[in-house]
Amino acid sequence: MRVAIAQLNLHVGNIDANVSRIRSSLGQAKNQGADLVLFPELTLAGYPPRDLLLSQAFIDDCQRGLGQVAASCHDIAAIIGGPSRNETGQGKPLFNSAFLLYDGKVQAVCHKGLLPTYDVFNEDRYFQSATDFSTVDYKGERLAITVCEDLWNIGKESLYALTPPDVLMKSRPTVLLNISASPFAWNHMPQRMRVLSANAKKYRLPLFSANLVGGQTDLLFDGASAVFGPSGQVVDRLPAFREDMRVYDLSSVRSSPHNEGLPELEGKEQQWAATLDALVMGVRDYFRKTGLSKALVGLSGGLDSALTLVIAEKALGKENVWAVLLPGPYSSEHSVTDALALARKLGVRHDTISINGIVESLENSLAAQYAGTESGIAEENLQARARAVVLMGLSNKFNHLLLNTSNKSEAAVGYTTLYGDMCGGLSVLGDVYKSDVYGMARLINAIGEVIPWHTISKPPSAELKPNQKDSDSLPEYQLLDDILYQFLEEGKDAGEIVRRGHDEALVKRVIEMVCLSEHKRFQSPPILRTSPKCLGVGREMPLEASWQSLLRIHNA
Amino acid sequence: MRVAIAQLNLHVGNIDANVSRIRSSLGQAKNQGADLVLFPELTLAGYPPRDLLLSQAFIDDCQRGLGQVAASCHDIAAIIGGPSRNETGQGKPLFNSAFLLYDGKVQAVCHKGLLPTYDVFNEDRYFQSATDFSTVDYKGERLAITVCEDLWNIGKESLYALTPPDVLMKSRPTVLLNISASPFAWNHMPQRMRVLSANAKKYRLPLFSANLVGGQTDLLFDGASAVFGPSGQVVDRLPAFREDMRVYDLSSVRSSPHNEGLPELEGKEQQWAATLDALVMGVRDYFRKTGLSKALVGLSGGLDSALTLVIAEKALGKENVWAVLLPGPYSSEHSVTDALALARKLGVRHDTISINGIVESLENSLAAQYAGTESGIAEENLQARARAVVLMGLSNKFNHLLLNTSNKSEAAVGYTTLYGDMCGGLSVLGDVYKSDVYGMARLINAIGEVIPWHTISKPPSAELKPNQKDSDSLPEYQLLDDILYQFLEEGKDAGEIVRRGHDEALVKRVIEMVCLSEHKRFQSPPILRTSPKCLGVGREMPLEASWQSLLRIHNA
Known about the structure:
2 copies of one chain form a homodimer. Chain A is α/β, with parallel strands linked by helices. Chain A has helices at residues 15-31, 56-72, 164-169, 188-203, 250-254, 268-290, 303-316, 333-346, 356-370, 377-398, 408-413, 434-445, 453-457, 470-473, 477-488, 494-499, 504-516, 518-521, 548-551; strands at 2-7, 36-38, 77-85, 94-102, 105-111, 136-138, 141-147, 175-180, 207-211, 213-216, 219-222, 226-228, 234-237, 244-249, 295-298, 321-325, 349-352, 401-404, 426-427.
């Protein structure tokens, strides 16, 4: 039997487009001699459909789409994903299902047993978990069909009472199939490969896994679908961050030579390169799937907006990106020259609009109320918000989506202005620490200067008061980022971070800044997720809380 | 045995404060001769603790708090709620537990079996559901201890495979106890009373239910804890929207006279009155629990900001509320006079700051780019954003929390400006349709004019261009609200709404406006939830989606 993996970039809610995408892949696979094509999880709906799943009309349309795809399955079989109604009268109204289609009909339905409900996932909100699992015979093979998380109850951690493939093994399947929507984080692909390989090895079966590719708002799917031989050996891995389809001869996979070649977590450079690819895909898909084409970026002369502009240009093309410089009362000359140099290098439209008159009129309007107070953060925020109003004025007038340029370090500690530099329709770097922003900028410049080196080398500054530097208000970024990483990504508490060598007062100060800015991040634009713990999707902190437990230094 | 219900207003994460609140209730109950005191769900942690539950330090502190409360339990018993670690090595790391405490120790632990994961709830994210349930003997009674949702798998709908009290009945308990955190919606209390009564009746047992009271950011808990006799009769109901403790003689409850007195869903006036009480509590608690005391309201002369100001004054006192009038180029004279009349009536500080100079400087700054374009929504947004920058300038400078004044109707269809009138730290009316804003305003004025009648009677207008009226851009609010209610609260699809008598083109237009403004609401402040389907907490729509299924008119 010849098995194809169709690694597609699907669109949530766009059932018509998804159906025609599936159909054209089927035609292509048939031409290449495939007997069976494996598609990603929830193929018809797109992933994650969120509360669209609560609409009966949406479920009806998914069912209709299923019928359309089934009708195309002649001389070929497909395994596609979609929601199906739970008719048992008990439990959640839907299953997250895989459908085996051939001879023009739905031949078998396999429901997902393990529903991830943690971090970015909330499948228990919609789906009932299946407890019965059956294999299906097709063309002399016995298929064990599983959906994503069904293969993840393996190894030391045992999050679920049930392990679906264990149940399936009772029927002695000959091949393990998995349809999935497993999102990107810079460290996730090697982990996914280990889990899949461990399944192939444990059950001594060839394993084919089709993973979703593409950006879906904040969630980025890398694809990197994979095929394993029955001793867990990697037979093939599809590319990351783009669609692809490949056809495999099952008997060759079964007898492929043993190897130990599982990918390891790579170094910083590879992390930065993968993150860049993910962000470019995320920006491109957000525009394409929302029907927009043109982006606006406020270019400050600093590094965050420079990197955002480079990513936007790669994603959308220089003709679709508009850079706007907004010098204010404390902008330095090099900010303007650095920003202009980059815009010219990239060949994007760039305009310069001074905010001085606006800031002056704001200060005049507030003069009576502000009288007798000392100039401080409120005055700095006026400048940030003046820029936001100008940028949004261009965005609204000319239908350009404004890209947010905040990085994760400043967003984490609230070194941002709500409705000021926090504005925009999509946050490009909100899940990238400042240290990694530097790394990515250097990587981009490795084959020749794109971002002016001066932008990279000068001390970071918000330029909201004379001679201001980020380091006046914040610890040095390397120190800050290490504490943030331990607190956010690694989930360490204050005591552990101190015991690992950081200053107690500093650790408390950083964690307190994170806690006290939760209310700002609540109003943040969606953030492209590239790390294992994003400050947007996948993190749900209370706002009206006491943070006493997070700030106390607990003993080991 | 004498059973007390302590209906407390707890604070998420504030374990120290919650422990001392519990202890003082225990002392009070002891003085009143109680043998056992029932507290709300997750008493120690506050509800909902959200991702604080992922912090080991937080769980440690809850355990420590549990020990402190247990140590206070001499000559009295308590049933309190808190997280407990799942030590089985399988499943989610925590249980949502009820602890029976007496003689200075934890005597029994009962884990929640049914974990709500729908609408505003996501308990499967944190907790493992229990499958074993045991009664506990205390003072000659056999207690069936349950946690909130454990009693909700009753009646026609069967969301769960298991019904915990069915299991508990095997041990022949003599009383049913329930600790809960069941939030307010204007229609929810009668439903909750029906469910609890049905349990008492089904199991022929007296039932005591302690419900949380107080605001917790967007979720508002009404309390209204209740006691039922063994034929389902209501014996007592505690007040809504405030703390209380009452002590009951179990034998009197057991033998209380039969009655059929379950509360019915009441009329519109009662809905408005309860919603007002809920909003006042929500505003008051948000300020108190975040350590703030002073509020800022932008007062336009329109009805939404007027009602917001009245609620703020009721919640915080006139000395803590600051009204700011921001007349612009198209503000009418009556807007200013109506706004001033209200501010004077309430006796709150009020300032007037014209935005004309700011708008002019914004238009000047954008003149080169705007040249040759027709004036439109972008220009209107400049005015809304100029107001936001001034309000936030006062908020930041003087540490006043800005209250958002948008109503649910305009938020639903996106008749709002992002970073403009959408600004603020808390949305007071974001879950109240404009029709209900009118109703609540009339209710407030029923005992004498507070809100100028002219504010209520004049046609609503954003006053962002000459002679503008909301009805230029939107259907009449009564029509709009009816379509929105069917679509959002009732979950009807477009076809059903049309079949119930609305114009097809209008229904499609309204639903499309809702869909196309999802990206704006993503950046909305938290919204005080008062309806069964809020546009904030409890609703998770995708942004980067096709809405084709929601817009298609499906046949019946």
